[in-house]
Write a structure and sequence with these properties.
Layout: H1 2-13, E1 20-22, H2 34-43, E2 50-52, H3 57-62, E3 66-67, E4 70-73, E5 79-83, H4 99-110, E6 123-124
Parallel strand pairs: 1-2
Antiparallel strand pairs: 3-6, 4-5
Length: about 130
């Protein structure tokens, strides 16, 4: 989580707005409740909004399938990046490339994201 928060802070310093959205079914997974989300964001020093997608409409509209799943847009709100934070993921392999930061640097400089993008892998969204 520290890598995520640090990378988001770096994006914010570049003027990029960031938001996290949690879409899990809290009735089946009460550990993902709104109160627990607030505590989690505070405990992890989030500097960005952490929103609750109660109806799961946002996740479905974006085609999100797992957590985390990153979406990056250019200034014209065109999707330019759909991928992972970095190469380390949940495997814990040594960090070699901060893919999200690299993608946004390219979006800032060229208006377009990288052609090669690796999908996020994590826990599946807990659907209703």
């Amino acid at each position: 989580m520290d890598r995520l928060v640090s990378d988001i802070e770096n994006l914010q310093k570049k003027g990029i707005g960031c938001v996290a959205i949690m879409s899990n079914d809290v009735e089946k997974y009460p550990e993902d409740s709104f109160d627990n989300m607030k505590k989690f964001s505070k405990d992890n020093n989030f500097t960005f909004p952490y929103l609750y997608d109660e109806t799961q409409e946002v996740a479905k509209a974006y085609g999100a399938v797992c957590t985390p799943d990153f979406f990056g847009y250019n200034k014209d709100l065109e999707l330019q990046y759909r991928g992972r934070l970095d190469n380390s993921g949940i495997s814990g392999e040594p960090l070699k490339e901060k893919e999200l930061l690299k993608a946004f640097d390219q979006i800032i400089n060229e208006g377009k994201g990288p052609k090669e993008q690796k999908a996020s892998m994590g826990c599946s969204i807990k659907w209703k």
